[in-house]
Amino acid sequence: MVPVASVRAAAAPKPGSLTALRKQAQEAYKAIADATKTLDAQQKQFNQTNKQLAAKLKELDKANKRLEQIRQPLSGLIESVYQDPSASGMGPLFAKGDGTTTLRAMSDVDHLAVGRNTVLDDAARLLKDKQKLAAEAQDLRSANLLEEAQMSHQVDTLRAKSSDVVKTLTQSLTKLGVDVDQGNRGTQACDPTRVSAAAQFPNGLLPKTSLCPLPQKGRELRADAAIAFADMNLAYSKNFGKQMCVADSYRSLASQQAIYYQRPGFAATPGRSNHGLGLAVDLCGGVQNSGSVQFNWMEANSKRYGFIHPAWAYSNPFEPWHWEYDPKLGASL
Ligand SMILES: [Zn+2]
User: Fold this and answer.
1) What is the pLDDT of residues 43-52, one digit of tens each?
2) Separation of 250 CA from ligand 1 center, angstroms?
3) Which residues cross the membrane (predicted)?
């Protein structure tokens, strides 16, 4: 064992702990996204039900108005017939003195009265329906408000938890000399929770926010790979007394093209290299020599941190320096 003079052992986190923190942060992020989705779906459902209730109430109002229009003149007509048949226009029917006609006229008036009562009954039923619907709408609003308050409280708790985890992770990375806010990132620092978002970008075109710096200045990888690398670098440092040597890491499409045209056959076809996905590193400091103690250490330990030496790199082309983070392996750890 080589002494660990160059590593700040007291403050440094344990190898593997950064990845654990990153996973916690990612889970918290996913929980927030899920809760927000549920909240949105609930809001949509509420709006739809509310709209349906409002439409029903409007229909009831219309029906009520129609009844009102019939009821007033009908009542007026019946009253006037009873009081003064001649004034209602039905006078001639009563005035003829013909018993049959009078009876028929009386029966017509009775019909009108029955009709008026039906209208009154209908109006009462409509009013009841309207009150029921209004109460239903009120209940829905109250239930929704309560649920919304509970959900947003839940989202707030998740947010606080997520921000705590990210803060702890950032502090741990800073302790390792990883300047998370380096350059002009500002508030757009690398986001360890957005790994799935990073996977959607094309090779060599990853946005700054989905790349995280390595302890080695100027080098960066996709957030999950960078944090796993920091963990591996910590273990390596404890063993060798110095940080890993990184010759190359993330490569933008432009730099992949430049390397390809300078040394065709040496680099992968532009847009095809795992360097462009922010998952590959080219190592130096001994690892570049197959069979060296550093190379052997990598072979024995890298998988514990999600890093592999791909099969092709053993022979075709022979690239002992090329190591890759395997997200599936990393996620399974
Ligand atoms: Zn490489």
Assistant:
1) 888 888 888 8
2) 9
3) none
